[in-house]
Amino acid sequence: MKAMEYQTLSPNIGVKSVDETVQFYTETLGFNLIMSVPAPAGGLQWAMVANGGATIMFQEMGNLIEEYPQLAGRMVLGAMTFYVKMKGMQTLYEKLQGTEYIAKEMHKTFYGADEFAFFDNNGHILTVTEDTNQ
To answer: pTM above the 0.70 mark?
Structure first.
């Protein structure tokens, strides 16, 4: 039997507004818009953003439910957080410091890493750390 190997994992997150989410991730977090699908009524119904090795997809919740009817009735914001390793963490922290986006100030973890957490425009929590051994 051939061994399985996962090569990428890119979350596709249901959001109220793909346009607002893309704006937040590109303007505030420095991601780049890679691909998008326009909505019939205007704006975007799906988009992919990337920065370095991180890729995230966003899909308008109504459109996502059309694709997967099993999601009907589920809350848009689930109990899920994202753990992100990046370079230039201090720059992002300084950009977000003092805003309503900070969920947890910069701190040293029990395993010795410096990290902080912030909310995106949809209320998802991203915890950020930087590998200092590079």
So the answer is: yes
